[in-house]
Amino acid sequence: MIVAFFDAFRSKPYPTLYGASQTAVTEDKLVVGLVVAIGVLGFTLLVVSPAIRGRKALVYFLKVGASLFVGCTIIVGNYGYGWQTGTIKTRTAYKAFTDHEVAAQVGLHVGLRGINITLKGEPEHQLKEQINYNEQFSWGWQQFRIGFGPYV
Description:
Layout: H1 29-48, H2 55-79, E1 84-93, E2 101-110, E3 114-126, E4 129-138
Antiparallel strand pairs: 1-2, 2-3, 3-4
Helix pairs in contact: 1-2
């Protein structure tokens, strides 16, 4: 029997099955990386500050520490999904054109770079299905066209 390259993880005649994507809802890898980088700079400030003598050490520590705090706050505000959040418990139609309703919690997280919508059933297993969904909709400020031309 010859196995084709694209038949991996596939049960014939069904499409390829992949495992569930276990991603965080409100945390973003980019934001965590930037906060860790600023934390490293803050730790470096603590290590270097004893080398500065006198009153200058305190002034230097306060200036640079305040700058790092303000920079971290701006970055988290810009890249995070925590500008406006809200949740509500409701009974809602589960699928279009059916009378089946589910008890669920609907959550919304809004940020500058996108929106995150969550639907979680209470209890999670209803109508013989697991109801636990999360969708992230990002809006970019680029046109995604490289080079020069009439559409750039």
